[in-house]
Amino acid sequence: MRRGRKRPAGGEHAMLKEKTNRWFLALGAALLCAGLGAAALWDLEIDLALYSPGFLPAVLMEAFGWFPQYLPAVVLCVCIALDGARSMPLRAAGGLLAVAGSGILLYMGAHHLVKRGMSGPSITLWTVLLGGLSLGICALALYRSRSGGRKKLEFVCLWGTVYLLAGLAAINIIKAVWQRTRFDDMLTAAGGGFEGAFAQFTSWMQPFGNGGSSFPSGHTAAACSVFILTLACDVCLKWNRRRTLVWALCWAYVAFMALCRLVIGRHYLSDTLAAAFVMLLLYLGMRKTKWYRAGARELTAPGT
Questions:
Q1: Rounded Cα–Cα distance for residues 39 and 46 (Å)
Q2: Does the residue 20 lie in any domain?
Q3: Does the keyword field hold Transmembrane helix (predicted)?
Q4: Is the CB of residue 150 less than 8 Å from the CB of residue 82?
Q5: Is position 116 within any domain?
Q6: What is the pTM of this model?
Q7: Mind listing the pLDDT tens digit for each residue in 238-249?
Q8: Is residue 243 domain-resident?
Q9: Total domain count for the chain?
Q10: What is the DSSP string of 70-92?
Q11: Domain span at residue 256?
């Protein structure tokens, strides 16, 4: 009779399972490095070949694809508002921040569509569909966590908020140093014609450029916030069993956002790859902190 292999319990099983996916992270890092090398040679040529500013999926990703960076903070505020163990003023503040945050996200999404010249009815339609879908997924997560899973959801959203703040700081500091001019800004300054439009183009390896905020891509960095779904794999056994699938879907989402940023002319390949690389480093560093690991062990201890 075949003897079953002993399975570690709780957090030990989660960490053991995570190790089997290190090859996935290593492959992603290798592709990012190879892509940055290629971008050093063909950044501008790739944008010229892909440029199609009216491509609807790229427009919609610009408007709503960055939501994953901010939704954890909104959900965290809702968790605080629903926690009867907290003081009433804190719960009220959490509720108000959640409502205000949701409204700001929807407004900014619609504002992006306005800047792209979309008609009023189309703006309303896509804001309701995609904005509503995003908030609906959050509401579903809150509903599914009502029976014992609220602490785990709060843990994931807390670290998602930490990831948000760290990402914003890192990306904007690098933008301020690099000062790289965007593809479409150069095109607009030249009156829309391609002839002689890109005299201000600089390689991603050159900091202190000609002015702008192209490098690295803020939208791609925001899309990388979907990596927080893998944090659920550390505290929930059902998610843990699907960790590889979760990682694959996360990378697919980030890759699609990166492609859309090239197509719409807001970024170069190197901008998107650098953003993904920075956010991957921040993610790995965050998961290695003693505070994160202690919290994950506590939530996966036997009996919890």
A1: 8
A2: yes
A3: yes
A4: yes
A5: yes
A6: 0.90
A7: 888 888 899 889
A8: yes
A9: 1
A10: THHHHHHHHHHHH-TTS-HHHHH
A11: 12-298
